[in-house]
Amino acid sequence: MRFRERLEARQIPTVNGVAPLVMTFHDPNGFTAEHLTEYLALLPKVAHEAGLQVAKHPFYTQRATLWRAARKRVGTTFGPG
Question: What's the pTM value of the predicted model, to 2 decimals?
Answer without folding.
Answer: 0.49
